[in-house]
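Deadline looming. Please check this record:
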Amino acid sequence: MSVAILQFLGTNCEYDMEYAFSLLGVKSQIVWHQQRALPKDTKLVVIPGGFSYGDYLRSGAIARFSPIMRCVIDFANKGGYVLGVCNGFQILLESGLLPGAMKHNENLQFISKNVSLEVVDTHNIFLKNFKIKEVINIPIAHAEGNYYIHQEQLGQLEANGQILLKYTQNINGSLEKIAGICNENKNVFGLMPHPERAVEEVLGNTAGLKMLEGFLEVL
């Protein structure tokens, strides 16, 4: 086992993520959120997109308390790699594994479209196959993707190379157009765009697969 893909009530991208890793020849296992342990030999935990608990309270706020998240937090704190996509990013923010918070999109509407992203930092395993300032296209689908963080913490993100991706156009109101970040140790990654939806040419491009390919080093 290499990749553990979490599944909550309302998750809807777990099978897309499983398929994406299969294209890389990587075995993955979908893990129900009530489990109290990650599969043996897990090298990467992926928290995929969807609407955990229907986003009824605040996106990711309830999922953060699921039993499996205790394992994920411990896994990450010991240096394990974690990737959160869309709702998964929101869960990582709620759990404290990544700094900042998500607000409703500035226009208060759900946005589902392909967007252009600028690669900001490549000194990490996730984006090591890209070049700084490279522009890529990845789909988004969210209502709460308006990233916010206090100015002092924003300075820390910039100084530590934790800002990974920015929208070329600020489609949701995110501070500094931020679309993806990582933690200071660069083993926990979160982004609102969906790389698993850009893994074959029939889907438009394979930039998302190139992102996931970065993890092959540890899988």
Summary: The first strand starts at residue 3 and ends at 7. The helical segments are 14-23, 67-77, 87-95, 151-159, 207-213. The chain has one domain: 3-217.
